[in-house]
Input
Amino acid sequence: MRLALALALITVLADMPTAPQPVIRYFTNVREIRVAEPARQNYFVIDEEIWSHSRADLGDLRLYEGEKPVQYAILEQRDGVASDEVGARILNLGVVSGHTEFDLDMQGMAEYNRIRLTLDAHDFVATASVSGGSSPGKAATAELTHSTLYDFSKEQLGSNSVLKLPTSSFRFLHVRISDGVRPQHVKGAAVFQQHEQQASWTRIGSCGAPQQHDRTTIVTCNVPEHIPVSRIAFDVAPSQVNFRRRVMIEVANGLRGAGGDISRVRMNREGTLVTEEQLGIGVLGVSGQITVTIDNGDNPALDIKNVQPLVTEHRVYFDPQGKTNLKLYYGDEKLATPVYDYARFFHLDSSPAQAELGAASHNPEFAGRPDERPWSDRHAAVLWAAMLVTIAALALLALRGLRTPAAK
Output
């Protein structure tokens, strides 16, 4: 019995997992970091080489000064984030001097910079002016902005019903719309706050030349399997205007990755010029072989110069604290993502310096992480032999116990 208990205890202790620790010789790749300004916050951009040789979550990146680790924080350069839309009550809707005018009660919104109108109107171009004040009507108001509203349903070129404002906090807004929208067309309004931030992208993988198949244009792209592509960008000849095409994205296993429209609008209606361009499709973490299909319908194929997969730009921020000799190590699949105080309490400086990454190279100290599987997995034969010996010993003890009473 004591032998069995001892064996069980040894097995349990041997199988207790231990978290892999970062060790320089266990990383496959290394790059020098050329610090731009040692006394300021620095950052560098994750490029395709790092994406290709690190984990998909970038959790195996480590910065070192010699053998001393340096903490960092990773930030994605995404588009601005919008708050939830809040409905605004429409007041005093009517016609003044041939123009549609109304007030919006903004109660419940502390700050806002966008108004989304619900319009039941088609094939029009109109100009909307917005002013704000503490009471309904145009008295004692401040002029805020002018926006262009349009609907090109006939041409199948989309529409716009969003008014852009400077960040405001007026209790009431007064909206005046030129010809093209009548009071009966105004069905609702909602306001929200759009935090402006221009997204940045990193080019990943490559795409082949467009191929025409009947009414569709097909482009095949290849991206390393574990890199999470977040956008497909299209370079269409500048001479092609006033188009709108449906785009479908499929990955290698036949699953649909995403879909959307690309368009370019340049139209002049009664002296009002409308220009708008959307030449990118957002996707959610697709990778590997990607098939892009553009539905041309009854229209001629677009003159596409290039199609490029993109990933949201990731920046690694760190504080050199006067150090200039830093290195970036990556390529250890077993490491857990680090939890740094620097990232928890991260503060972005107003003008961080951009550090440069040296050429990528294989880590000359690389030795490979040892087999860290549980002892029972690595020595299954020994464990089974020990268990068989234990069972045999227990059987002998049982037989001896049976013989003793018989002899007595």
Remarks:
- The chain has a mean pLDDT of 86.
- The domain at 201-312 is CATH 2.60.120 (Jelly Rolls).
- The chain has five helices and 31 strands.
